[in-house]
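Final report, results section. Input specification for complex C-07:
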Amino acid sequence: MAYSDQVIDHYENPRNVGKMDDKDENVGTGMVGAPACGDVMRLQIKVSDEGVIEDAKFKTYGCGSAIASSSLVTEWVKGMTLDEAAELKNTSIAEELALPPVKIHCSVLAEDAIKAAVADYKEKQDKK
Amino acid sequence: MDISKNYFELFALPVSFHIDLNLLSAHYLELQKTLHPDRHAHLSDRERRLSEQYTAFLNEALTTLKSPLRRAQYLLGLVGLDVTGESSVAIEPMFLMQQMELRERLEEIPQQADPFEELDELSDEVDAMLKQLREAFAGLYAEQKFEDAAANVRKMQFLEKLAIEIENLEDRLDD
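Structure output:
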C-alpha cells in the first residue's frame, strides 16, 4: 500500500520520539493499543503550572500510519492547553496525513492516546 | 460436503478450543479425497467450479482450526463476537505497559553482546505467555464467559504480532 508523502516524512523523521519520567507529577502518560493489528502507542505530555503543554514525547510500535499519527500529535499539542489537546479529533490527523480509509484506525489510536495522557495528568493533579 | 456447517461440525469435532489435531488432519484428508478436482476430470464446468469452491472452503476451515489464534477468533465469531476488526477497545494499562517493555527489549536486542541468546529468551517468554492465555481462553470459553474470553484473545493478538516480529529479527540476524 502506498503511503502519502506526509506519512513517509513522519515515518522517516519521527518528531519527539522518547520517554519522560511517568512518575513526574507534571507528566501525563497515555498508553493505548490496537488489538486487531497489535500496535502499541505511548504518548506523554509535560504540562506547565498554567496548564499548557510544554513538551510531548511518543513511542509507537506499529505501522507507518500509526507512527506518523502519534508523531504529528506530539507536534500539534505543544503549546496547547489541556482542554484544546483533549478536543483533538482523529479526523484532523487523518486529513493532515492523507490516511486511506483502512488506516483511519491509526489516527483514532493517536486521538485515544492524547486523551489518555490528558486524563492521566488530570488524575495526578486531583490526587495532589 | 455441507458448507452450511461450522468448521468444527465439518470435521466432526466438538466445538471447543482444545481439539485433537490428528483427528482434524484425518478428517480433512477424508473430506479432501471426496473433492480433489483431479478426480473429477469428467465433470461439467459447473460441477468442477463447485468442487473448487468446496476445496477452498475446506482449506480455509483447516487453516482456521489449525492456528490457535484463528481457532479462538473463530470460536468467538460463533457466539457473535468479532475481535479481529476492532479499532479501539480499552486494554488493561498494565498489559499495555508490559507489551511496550517487551517491544523495547526486542528493539535493543541487535545491540546486545549475544543477540541470539537474548532473542531466544524473549521468544521463550512470549511463547509461555501465549500458552497461558490459550489455556485461560479454553477454560473461559467452556464456561461461556465470552467477554472475558474475548479479552484474552485480544491479548493473544498483541503477543502473536510480537512473536512474528521476533521471527523477523531472527531472520535478519541470520543474514
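Chain B touches chain A through 22 residues (CB under 8 Å). Chain B has a mean pLDDT of 92. This concludes the modelling results for the funded period.
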